[in-house]
Design a protein that fits this description.
The complex is a heterodimer of chains A (564) and B (281).
Chain A (H helix, E strand, L loop, with lengths): L1 H10 L19 H35 L2 H35 L1 H34 L7 H33 L14 H5 L4 H30 L3 H22 L2 H15 L1 H8 L6 H23 L13 H15 L9 H7 L13 H26 E2 L5 H28 L2 H29 L4 E2 L9 H27 L4 E3 L3 E2 L10 H29 L12
Antiparallel strand pairs in A: 1-2, 3-4
Helix pairs in contact in A: 2-3, 2-5, 2-7, 2-18, 3-4, 3-18, 4-5, 5-7, 7-8, 7-9, 7-17, 9-10, 9-16, 11-12, 11-14, 11-17, 12-14, 14-15, 14-16, 15-16, 17-18
Chain B lengths: L1 H22 L8 E6 L6 H13 L22 H10 L13 H13 L33 H15 L14 E6 L10 H7 L22 H4 L2 H9 L18 H4 L2 H12 L9
Antiparallel strand pairs in B: 1-2
Helix pairs in contact in B: 2-5, 4-5, 6-10, 8-10
The chains are: A mainly alpha (564), B mainly alpha (281).
Chain lengths: 564, 281
């Protein structure tokens, strides 16, 4: 009998909510509360899921290089992550409560859709907690020899569960954007697997996975920078400088392929619904990409500045200092192109003075081919800054070093020319193919980076290693590491706002309408203010987490024994 | 002290982003509410104007059918020729094959809205389908969800634009149509031609309302040079044929999306009365 009831429920479509189905508290709807809680949960979840991934990789590097410094650093990364774990669960619980309070009809439907899977999610969460505690608390007990491999295996299982957990949660989001496994009325017609694997699920999975790595790296980098600035002990400064450099490296490694994942996601959105794609890229949300440019531009400027300062750590760094100005021209120039808007909203007088809605010279820089060219050249320039730092620490001694250098230079030149050429092609091709023209640009950037890494690794065999004086960094350079988490946090929230807004007035696109009084896309100013408030909240949480972490290292001196 | 410095620095960075967000043009969509309208009260010109409003509003047609190349720009094409040519094209797979005349064109437009893949204009098909599958959705299904009466109104608008006989029936007296209107912060439509000119910045480029601007052609006497349809075309597709001595691509080509039908008609009324070339002389 219960099976018949369940079958009947599944066969019925999505409920049709009315405005009275959205409870208010003191006359206020719950959208902003849900928005803030969802964003806070995502910030924390991204952080606690990402840190164990690169902690595991660093731990493995430590084993392979037989260098215990890596092990210490990985352990410290995990210590920060642990303090944030329970706060993540707390924010998640708060979000769930707010969703059921303010959107009961939607949540009832979603619970019906994902009912079996929710149990699996709960189980995964339990396993995640078990393996997280096991991984962290067994660190010293399983530190050497064969036991270390057992510890690494625990880390691998933890990350497999954590990543699966994120993929499961992503399926709820992708279902609301591109529902699958249901008919046009929302009645279930497929298995839970068919419901999960909607057209946007995997692009979202990849995008979030990479973004989490970059985000986690940026946050632990800020922790290292803060600890660096807070101590005058040369040994500690050296340790935290190295930790900051490694964190920055992790953030950039996660960040460099993100545009490619972004293009894939947008291409799938366009393929699923051209309307949805245009709403995001060419409609009301188009102006947001100017802020995105400012955010990513400031991230790249900060990363490059930090790397240039890092050349001072080695004696060999001075020989590359002359290249910095050229890299700076590319990064700053690219940034300026990226923030150039296409269409200007002008008064009649301004329109008359300008001679149209587009500036005659700068207007062409406002369209996608120019922006794609700019961002790819900026990414190449950033990688070059990395490569210069590595070169400052190693002088190749292989017989083919000269030829290797020539190949690397040729790769950069050919890559830059190909990116420019594809950008120019974008001007002469119809709009529909402009996005397509950006694919070879990203492919070029990634190819140059991968090939340079391979050639550099081969050239590094038997290279003369210069001493890196960790800790020989200015205080100013450390502030670049604070720009990253602030910009990444704001950027994540901005992208969340765009992703959610493309559904326009649908809870579940094409299936269940949002008829609440708050079913509109707020202006960028309003969204920016909310994003800033949530970011401030997150900063407060992170400061608390850092404080908790540093508390662990404090020890109260034993009281003096008083003679009886 | 370090903590304070770091926090102040982070706050300055954060507030910079917030300030930029608030400095950009602020656009907010409106809450959509169901509002009862009575199309039965509409005459033919009212039905056409309603169709235009759906075309640029609820139907979201101009999201793709514009001059950006995502779909054929229906506001710039010579539709009377285009429709006939499509029906005669061997690639046409629809049910109106071999038929001619206004009724066939009506059936074709309806079919193209409900089954867009019946004929896909070369170069506009979904990627990898060799122009056999259209990316356009069925307009009667979500998210657009046009009703039969609304589809009729859009067809009436298309037929009128094409300059062919409007064949769709007027909404019957018993029809009551629930349609979606946007409310909230949406800007109210201009009430006079002067308001329209100010709202869309026409005087910034054209010498109109004594602005003295000279970027675009003077509009004195424009009513004598173009009939009403010609004026509509010049507003909606300004770059189709640009007057000698003036540059193309200066006048925005998206007024079809920006303007309300009532605003367009107010502007056309005003311009058609500018018959004297006194200012030019």
């Amino acid at each position: 009998m219960p099976n018949l009831v369940a079958a009947a429920a599944n066969a019925s479509g999505a409920p049709v909510p009315t405005p009275s189905d959205y409870p208010t508290i003191a006359g206020f709807g719950g959208r902003n509360i849900v928005w803030a809680l969802a964003q806070m949960h995502l910030f924390l979840a991204a952080f606690v899921l990402a840190v164990p991934i690169f902690a595991l990789v660093i731990e493995l590097i430590g084993v392979l290089h037989r260098d215990s410094r890596y092990d210490v650093m990985a352990h410290e990364f995990m210590k920060i992550s642990m303090a944030a774990y329970s706060l993540t669960a707390l924010a998640g619980g708060g979000l769930l409560l707010a969703l059921f309070v303010f959107y009961p009809v939607l949540m009832t439907y979603l619970t019906r859709i994902f009912q079996g899977q929710l149990l699996i999610y709960a189980l995964l969460f339990v396993f995640e907690s078990v393996f997280l505690y096991l991984y962290y608390y067994s660190w010293n007990a399983l530190r050497y020899d064969d036991r270390k491999w057992l510890h690494l295996t625990i880390g691998l299982i933890l990350n497999t569960i954590g990543t699966t957990l994120m993929f499961v949660a992503n399926s709820w989001v992708s279902f609301t954007m591109s529902p699958s496994g249901v008919d046009a009325t929302g009645a279930i017609i497929g298995s839970i697997w068919e419901i999960m694997r909607g057209p946007l699920w995997n692009p979202l999975n990849l995008h979030r996975f990479l973004a989490n790595i970059a985000y986690g790296g940026a946050i632990v980098g800020a922790y290292a920078a803060y600890r660096f600035l807070s101590t005058s002990d040369p040994q500690k400064r050296a340790h935290y400088d190295w930790m900051g450099y490694s964190s920055n490296f992790i953030a950039v490694i996660g960040f460099l392929p993100l545009p490619f994942a972004g293009y894939w996601l947008m291409a799938e959105i366009y393929a699923y619904s051209q309307q949805m794609g245009i709403t995001a890229m060419g409609g009301i949300l188009a102006w947001l990409f100017i802020i995105q440019a400012v955010l990513i531009g400031s991230i790249l400027l900060a990363v490059n500045y930090y790397l240039w300062c890092g050349l001072g750590r080695t004696d060999g760094g001075a020989r590359y200092a002359g290249y910095i100005k050229y890299i700076a021209i590319v990064v700053v120039g690219g940034f300026l192109v990226w923030v150039t808007p296409h269409t200007l909203i002008l008064s009649s007088e301004e329109l008359r003075m300008l001679g149209g809605t587009h500036h005659k010279v700068l207007g062409p820089l406002g369209i996608m081919p120019a922006k794609n060219t700019a961002v790819n050249l900026m990414l190449l320039a950033t990688f070059l800054s990395f490569q210069l730092f590595r070169r400052a620490t190693r002088t190749p001694t292989v017989s083919w070093a000269r030829a290797g250098n020539a190949v690397i230079v040729a790769l950069y030149v050919a890559g830059a020319l190909n990116i420019l050429g594809a950008g120019l092609y974008g001007y002469i091709t119809p709009t529909v193919y402009k996005v397509g023209a950006s694919v070879p640009q990203v492919a070029t950037t990634l190819s140059v980076i991968v090939l340079c890494i391979i050639i550099d690794a081969l050239m590094a065999r038997g290279a003369r290693v210069s001493e890196v004086r960790w800790g020989r960094m200015s205080a100013r350079s450390q502030y670049a590491l604070f720009v990253l988490p602030v910009a990444f946090t704001w950027l994540m929230a901005l992208m969340g706002y765009i992703r959610s807004s493309v559904r326009t007035n649908w809870h579940i696109y094409n299936i269940m309408k949002d008829v609440s009084p708050e079913s509109y896309i707020p202006s960028i100013g309003t969204a920016g203010n909310i994003i800033t408030m949530v970011t401030l909240g997150f900063m407060a949480v992170i400061v608390f987490v850092f404080w908790l972490t540093s508390l662990d290292a404090m020890e109260q001196p034993a009281p003096r024994e008083v003679a009886p | 002290m370090t903590f304070l410095r770091v926090m102040i620095f982070s706050l300055v960075v954060l507030l910079t982003y917030t300030a930029i967000a608030n400095l950009l043009p602020q656009v907010q969509t409106s809450v959509q509410v169901e509002e009862e309208t009575k199309p039965a009260a509409l005459d033919r010109s009212g039905q056409i104007a309603w169709g235009k409003r759906i075309f640029t509003g609820k139907g979201t047609c101009t999201l793709c059918h514009n001059d950006l190349g995502r779909a054929p720009n229906l506001l710039a094409l010579d539709l009377s020729r285009e429709f006939a040519a499509r029906l005669a094209d061997p690639r046409y797979m629809g049910t109106v094959k071999g038929k001619q005349g206004p009724n066939a064109i009506e059936a074709y437009i309806r079919e193209s809205m409900l089954k867009p893949s019946a004929y896909v204009v070369a170069g506009f098909g979904k990627k990898g389908t060799n122009d056999t599958v259209s990316p356009m959705p069925d307009v009667s299904a979500p998210p657009i969800s046009l009703s039969d009466t609304e589809i009729d109104a859009v067809i009436a608008y298309m037929e009128d634009r094409a300059g062919i006989e409007v064949t769709v029936p007027l909404p019957s007296a018993t029809t009551t149509q629930a349609t979606v209107h946007e409310t909230g912060d949406e800007e109210a439509p201009a009430k006079t031609a002067k308001e329209v000119i100010e709202k869309y910045g026409c005087a910034g480029c054209h010498d109109i309302l004594e602005s003295g601007a000279d970027i675009g052609p003077k509009l004195a006497g424009v009513g004598a040079r173009f009939d009403r349809d010609g004026l509509r075309r010049k507003i909606l597709n300004p770059n189709g044929k640009v007057r000698e001595g003036y540059k193309p691509d200066i006048m925005p080509s998206d007024f079809g999306r920006q303007m309300r039908a009532s605003e367009l008609e107010l502007l056309v009324d005003y311009l058609s009365n500018l018959r004297s070339t006194r200012i030019e002389q």
